[in-house]
């Protein structure tokens, strides 16, 4: 099991870098901010960690720490947080299952959104004006103490009445 | 709801988890020990089947402990989940539906594989439920049966000429390029210049993209070799994607539209008049529909920038939406019995946009290929299962098949063929929740021991059916990846059941 987890993590990191590269094409500025992380080989000291509070679908608060440069999806995987179906496409911007909702002041600090992320968000359940995909948000020190809410999944045919999905 | 309680929390704070899990011990004060493991069988190994199985295994592992005045105790027993699949290979539409140039979507296979490798999950491929074994036999062997076999039929246009050579259902066409064994004889003739696709959903756009993508891009995907060769010879230069209603009712999602807009070596060709009044109507629509429509408007009406103009000028192929048109007749050449065109009725929309009505006007479009992509449709596989043929679903209440206890459904068979993979995921989790609720409430009796796969395996053996296990599939998987490696593809799919079974036997 440990091996599976380790492999999954390895695979995940690779995919994450891929996504970041894709994002970097559109947002050069973002690339620079990530550069230090991807080139760093030293494990980051624990005092560099950023605290993140997740609110799960039952309204419970789960507090974890992540390293700057990690995506919020990375943290959910690394910490083995049990959010049903979270991150189905493994951070490749091909689904909307890592949808998270933020308070407005946090949302403003999350950095730019690409069209592609917006496209996937458009398919998310319970989309709000302060919704983002967890796989596209990279932790920075300035996000210390942020709260990310996992939206309730309301799944039934009422959702597809619009005919758009 | 019990299933959404994280395992860790459940173990660390028993009391809290019991309350949030909402478990009610019936006959409080009495100790209840389930005497055997619930044995559940899932029919179909696509996303619906696997997501249902995943949730059943996870939720049933939560040993919920509750304390009453007499310290009574309830343990929910581990469920054993067997997945039956008609083909020797798993994953249904993830393998045979998702477009080859969308490999990211196929990442869900990793999660499915983890589920299949759990000790309490077994895969039985190459078993045709309804033929090799009946639903009734499965119901006798298992405490519960979940039908997740999807929507393998297709809606037909119901117009003259539909049987002409060169007319295909989207389903068969997709099956052909994705290597579905039953579609390998399709061998479509791509020697014409114009292809018409009826329907404007994501499947229609997948097909348009495959028809128009530079072959160099597709070469790096798991598209089948015969398809690549056919596309290399293809003369198709123009793809028209036709819908009976207007831009505001289009069924595709924005990701697929953006891929078309950005498709190399192609340019969009729209009819500006189709978009009259659309911009004004956008004010009050929800964000997804608004963004989708805005992208369409920009593509159709905006004067492109210099760079984009140059790209469009250089493009050798084109695509475009045609709105307010319904097929009336596929026109054929009387000698060759091949399609040469399509007659379309011109529609107008009733005020609310919900319905297209005929204007009486018709127009003919010259084309050599017609693909109808107007929707998938579930089909009944066993007369003992209720089926609503009008909606083409199994009538159900939150996944519980009406009037048949112990029978459930999930995925497209439950809701009809709409939605992206996340939709199917949630809908399958919901069915699993219903099933577990029924176990907890006693509605589903799991107190009598059931033989599960043991008796079914014996039946199959008697009938000469050899199931394919998950490790057998891994042999096929490895063989395909190895075969693909030689040509720089992620995999080269085996195209017949015989070939798959041959690999299993080696």
TrEMBL record, chain A:
It is found in: Mitochondrion matrix. One of its GO terms (cellular component) is mitochondrial matrix. Belongs to the adrenodoxin/putidaredoxin family. It comes from the Eukaryota. Keywords: 2Fe-2S, Electron transport, Iron, Iron-sulfur, Metal-binding, Mitochondrion, Transport. PROSITE patterns: 2FE2S_FER_2, ADX. This is 2Fe-2S ferredoxin-type domain-containing protein. Its cofactor is [2Fe-2S] cluster. Residues 50-154 form the 2Fe-2S ferredoxin-type domain. The lineage of its organism: Eukaryota, Metazoa, Chordata, Craniata, Vertebrata.
UniProtKB/TrEMBL annotation, chain B:
Keywords: Electron transport, FAD, Flavoprotein, Mitochondrion, NADP, Oxidoreductase, Transit peptide, Transport. One of its GO terms (molecular function) is oxidoreductase activity. It comes from the Eukaryota. Gene3D superfamilies: FAD/NAD(P)-binding domain, NAD(P)-binding Rossmann-like Domain. It catalyses: 2 reduced [adrenodoxin] + NADP(+) + H(+) = 2 oxidized [adrenodoxin] + NADPH. GO terms for cellular component: mitochondrion. It is found in: Mitochondrion. It holds the Pfam family Pyr_redox_2. Residues 39-212 form the FAD/NAD(P)-binding domain. InterPro entries: FAD/NAD-bd_sf (IPR036188), FAD/NAD-binding_dom (IPR023753), Ferredox_Rdtase (IPR055275), Ferredox_Rdtase_adrenod (IPR021163). The keyword Transport applies. NADP(+) binds at residues 200-203, 244-245, 256, 419. It is an enzyme of class 1 (oxidoreductase). One of its GO terms (biological process) is cholesterol metabolic process. FAD binds at residues 48, 85, 93, 129, 412, 419-421. Its cofactor is FAD. Its EC number is 1.18.1.6. Pathway: Steroid metabolism; cholesterol metabolism. Belongs to the ferredoxin--NADP reductase type 1 family. This is NADPH:adrenodoxin oxidoreductase, mitochondrial. The lineage of its organism: Eukaryota, Metazoa, Chordata, Craniata, Vertebrata.
């Amino acid at each position: 099991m440990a091996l599976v987890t380790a492999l999954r993590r390895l695979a995940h990191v690779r995919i994450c870098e891929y996504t970041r590269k894709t994002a970097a094409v559109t947002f050069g500025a973002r690339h620079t901010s990530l550069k230090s992380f991807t080139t760093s080989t030293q494990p980051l000291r624990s005092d560099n960690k950023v605290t993140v509070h997740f609110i799960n679908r039952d309204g419970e608060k789960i507090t974890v720490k992540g390293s700057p440069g990690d995506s919020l999806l990375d943290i959910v995987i690394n910490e083995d947080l049990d959010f049903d179906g979270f991150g189905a496409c493994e951070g490749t911007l091909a689904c909307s299952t890592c949808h998270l909702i933020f308070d407005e002041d946090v949302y403003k600090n999350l950095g730019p959104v690409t069209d592609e992320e917006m496209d996937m968000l458009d398919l998310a359940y319970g989309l709000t004006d302060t919704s983002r995909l967890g796989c596209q948000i990279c932790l920075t020190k300035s996000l210390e103490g942020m709260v990310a809410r996992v939206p309730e999944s309301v799944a039934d045919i009422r959702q597809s009445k619009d005919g758009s999905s | 709801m019990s299933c959404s309680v994280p395992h860790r929390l459940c173990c660390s704070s028993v009391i809290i988890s019991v309350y949030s899990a909402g478990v009610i011990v019936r006959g409080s004060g009495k100790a209840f020990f389930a005497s055997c493991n619930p044995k559940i069988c899932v029919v179909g190994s696509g996303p619906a089947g696997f997501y249902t199985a995943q949730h059943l295994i996870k939720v049933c592992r939560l040993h919920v402990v509750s304390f009453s005045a007499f310290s009574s105790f309830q343990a929910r027993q581990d469920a054993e989940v067997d997945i039956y699949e008609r083909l020797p290979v798993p994953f249904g539409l993830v393998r045979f539906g998702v477009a080859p140039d969308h490999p990211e979507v196929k990442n869900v296979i990793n999660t499915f594989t983890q589920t299949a490798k759990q000790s309490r999950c077994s895969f039985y491929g190459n078993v045709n439920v309804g033929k090799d074994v009946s639903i009734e036999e499965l119901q006798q062997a298992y405490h519960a049966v979940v039908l997740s076999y999807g929507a393998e039929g297709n809606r037909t246009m119901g117009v003259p000429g539909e049987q002409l050579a060169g007319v295909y259902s989207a389903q068969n066409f997709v099956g052909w390029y994705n290597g579905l064994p039953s579609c390998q004889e399709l061998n479509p003739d791509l020697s014409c210049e114009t292809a018409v696709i009826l329907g404007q959903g994501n499947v229609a756009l997948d097909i348009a993209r495959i028809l128009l993508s530079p072959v160099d891009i597709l070469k790096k995907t798991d598209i089948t070799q015969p398809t690549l060769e056919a596309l290399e010879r293809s003369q198709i230069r123009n793809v028209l994607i036709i819908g009976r209603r207007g831009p505001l009712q289009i069924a595709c999602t924005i990701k697929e539209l953006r891929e078309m807009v950005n498709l190399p070596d192609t340019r969009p060709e729209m009819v500006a008049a189709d978009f009259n009044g659309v911009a004004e109507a956008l004010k009050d629509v929800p964000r997804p529909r608004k963004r989708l429509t805005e992208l369409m408007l920009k593509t159709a009406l905006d004067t492109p920038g210099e760079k984009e103009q140059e790209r469009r000028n250089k493009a050798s192929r084109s695509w475009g939406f045609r709105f307010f048109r319904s097929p009336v007749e596929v026109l054929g050449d009387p000698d060759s019995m091949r399609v040469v065109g399509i007659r379309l009725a011109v529609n107008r929309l009733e005020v609310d946009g919900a319905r297209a009505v005929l204007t009486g006007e018709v127009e003919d479009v010259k084309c050599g290929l017609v693909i109808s992509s107007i929707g998938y449709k579930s089909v009944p596989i066993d007369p003992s299962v209720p089926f609503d043929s009008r909606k083409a679903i199994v009538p159900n209440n939150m996944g519980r098949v009406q009037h048949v206890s112990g029978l459930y459904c999930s995925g497209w068979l439950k809701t009809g063929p709409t939605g992206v993979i996340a939709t199917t995921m949630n809908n399958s989790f919901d069915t699993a929740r219903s099933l577990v609720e029924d176990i907890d409430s006693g509605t589903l009796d799991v107190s009598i021991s059931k033989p599960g796969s043991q008796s079914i395996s014996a039946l199959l053996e008697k009938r000469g059916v050899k199931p394919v296990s998950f490790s057998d599939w891994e042999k096929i998987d490895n063989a395909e990846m190895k075969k693909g490696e030689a040509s720089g593809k992620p995999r080269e799919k085996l195209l017949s059941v015989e070939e798959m079974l041959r690999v299993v036997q080696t």
